[in-house]
Amino acid sequence: MKEMIDRGANINATIAHGWTALSLAKNRRTSDIVDLLEKAGAKDPIR
Q1: Residue partners of 33: CB distance under 8 A and separation at least 6
Q2: In the chain, at which end, N or C, are there fewer CB atoms within 10 A of the end residue's CB?
Q3: What is the reported pTM?
Q4: Please, are residues 6 and 35 in contact by the beta-carbon 8 Å criterion?
Q5: Within a 10 A sphere around the Cβ of 33, how many other Cβ atoms?
Q6: Percent of the residues in the chain that have a pLDDT greater than 90, as a whole number
Q7: What gap in Å lies between CA 15 and CA 6, rounded to an integer?
């Protein structure tokens, strides 16, 4: 994930029903990915 962020991946891209990488990481309780995405400025439209 960090490499993708470093290469400029759109961390706020959405998939079905508006889910983002951050909302999926929160849903799956992967706190290390949540922290990484939040530090990179990811937004969570679902909250």
Answers
A1: 1, 21, 25
A2: C
A3: 0.85
A4: no
A5: 18
A6: 81
A7: 21
